């Protein structure tokens, strides 16, 4: 037993933790959880906990259903919303999913990202990410709202009618953000900023940058914390990409950077925007492979209502410095500071599986670096205002127009297939085809014309 495992067992005993929840994600990024007693934890570290993998979305076929969940002791945290008022204390750890032979499960989302990070490490790179997570707060419960699971009868009612950066004295959102941040930091998740976003009841909380695996774990925890805090305050949080047709969607704009040891590989003093050749090739990889990776970063029918719903949503495959209408932006808040050089990908939405989204973006960027993709000139004006002729002259393409379109563009993608692995790649395609067929069967012609005018 290593020192980290010993620390976990000692902390559980000292803090009287009665239950330990083992967390992992299915292929869609939904959180799965199994609770074990502390007495079983030593065995779980050594051998894992057995479960039926075929019952988890995209994890295993029935013929290979036996799976093991082995907790990662480095992710141990006590859940701060448990263990109060005399309740038994509860902690959590993320798990790696293994086959009975002890090999990493090919269809484990966390393992997909770890494999891609290993490829980056072979080239000398560490991949860092910094997400800006948007979400809406609504009154009532999800069952009251249009778009919630199981159908609905009432439109969702935001908790306020304020806008971007508005200060709301005594407002629900402000109290909520303060409580959510306190809980996140109690779990060791550092928060950089928080504020009201552009839509009514829309909020944003930005997590501090970390290596991509830690960030993906933090995003999964973030969603759970936000939902728990919302319920405690009598409201509910929605991570739906476009819950309100007439207001901005919710994205998870993510800042990306590669480091070689302590050196930021994206920084080059004196270059345009202080971007190194590595950074420019990385951006070119993100752009060239955007049509095929979009199914992973925007995985639902509702995701494309966000991408094509205006409000600075990035439907155009372009990059620039100050331009927030394209897919990739190069922030320059602190010129001359080497550690701050990075690129911002604006296509990921808040419903994405963070492990798979980070994996395919890293794979696309690394391919651009390895093959030295050339980067076209950036677009500094609002891309949405350009004519078709101007777009063609600048080589600006567009993201898929619908889930069906994204499926079609991803089907032949060697990059996505290689990154996800054969079994997960095929399951993603099957799942998304079924979702599209179900959507077309239920949606009215009016909604098709309103939301999907390109059909």
Automatic annotation (TrEMBL):
It holds the Pfam family Gln-synt_N. Keywords: ATP-binding, Ligase, Magnesium, Metal-binding, Nucleotide-binding. Residues 15-102 form the GS beta-grasp domain. Its EC number is 6.3.1.-. One of its GO terms (molecular function) is ligase activity. Residues 109-455 form the GS catalytic domain. Its cofactor is Mg(2+). The keyword Ligase applies. The keyword ATP-binding applies. Coiled coil: none annotated. Signal peptide: none annotated. It is an enzyme of class 6 (ligase). SMART domains: Gln-synt_C. It comes from the Bacteria. InterPro entries: Gln_synt_N, Gln_synt_N_sf, Gln_synth/guanido_kin_cat_dom, Gln_synth_cat_dom, Gln_synth_gly_rich_site. Belongs to the glutamine synthetase family. PANTHER family: GAMMA-GLUTAMYLPOLYAMINE SYNTHETASE GLNA2, GAMMA-GLUTAMYLPUTRESCINE SYNTHETASE. This is Glutamine synthetase family protein. It comes from Pseudokineococcus basanitobsidens.
């Amino acid at each position: 037993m290593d020192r980290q495992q010993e620390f976990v067992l000692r902390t559980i005993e000292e803090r009287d933790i009665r239950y330990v929840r083992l967390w992992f994600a299915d292929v869609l990024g939904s959180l799965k959880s199994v609770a074990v007693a502390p007495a079983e934890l030593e065995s779980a570290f050594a051998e894992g906990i057995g479960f039926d993998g075929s019952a988890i979305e995209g994890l295993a076929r029935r013929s290979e259903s036996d799976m093991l969940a082995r907790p990662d002791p480095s992710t141990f945290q006590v859940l701060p919303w448990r263990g109060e008022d005399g309740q038994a204390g509860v902690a959590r750890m993320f798990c790696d999913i293994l086959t009975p032979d002890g090999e990493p499960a090919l269809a484990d989302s966390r393992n997909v990202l770890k494999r891609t990070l290993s490829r980056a490490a072979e080239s000398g790179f560490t991949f860092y990410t910094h997400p800006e997570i948007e979400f809406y707060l609504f009154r009532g419960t999800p069952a009251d709202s249009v778009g919630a699971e199981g159908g609905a009868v009432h439109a969702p009612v935001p908790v306020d009618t304020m806008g971007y950066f508005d200060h709301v004295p005594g407002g629900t959102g402000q109290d909520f953000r303060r409580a959510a941040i306190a809980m996140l930091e109690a779990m060791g998740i550092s928060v950089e900023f928080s504020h009201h976003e552009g839509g009514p009841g829309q909020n944003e909380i930005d997590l501090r940058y970390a290596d991509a695996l830690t960030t993906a774990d933090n995003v999964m925890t973030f969603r759970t914390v936000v939902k728990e805090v919302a319920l405690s305050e009598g409201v509910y949080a929605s991570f739906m990409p476009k819950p309100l047709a007439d207001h901005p969607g919710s994205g998870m704009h993510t800042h990306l950077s590669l480091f070689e040891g302590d050196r930021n590989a994206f920084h080059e003093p004196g270059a345009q925007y202080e971007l190194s050749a590595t950074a420019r090739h990385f951006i070119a990889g993100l752009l060239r492979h955007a049509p095929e990776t979009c199914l992973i970063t925007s995985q639902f029918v509702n995701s494309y209502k966000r991408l094509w719903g205006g409000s600075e949503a990035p439907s155009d495959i372009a990059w620039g410095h100050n331009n927030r209408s394209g897919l990739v932006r190069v922030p320059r808040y602190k010129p001359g500071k080497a550690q701050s050089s990075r690129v911002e990908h604006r296509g990921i939405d808040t419903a994405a599986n963070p492990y798979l989204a980070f994996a395919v973006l890293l794979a696309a960027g690394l391919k651009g670096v390895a093959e030295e993709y050339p980067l076209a000139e950036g677009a500094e004006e609002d891309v949405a205002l350009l004519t078709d002729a101007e777009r063609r002259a600048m080589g600006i393409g567009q993201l898929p127009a619908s889930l069906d379109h994204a499926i079609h563009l991803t089907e032949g993608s060697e990059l996505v297939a290689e990154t996800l692995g054969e079994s997960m790649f095929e399951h993603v395609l099957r799942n998304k085809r079924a979702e599209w067929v179900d959507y077309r069967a239920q949606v009215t012609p009016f909604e098709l014309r309103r939301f999907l005018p390109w059909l």
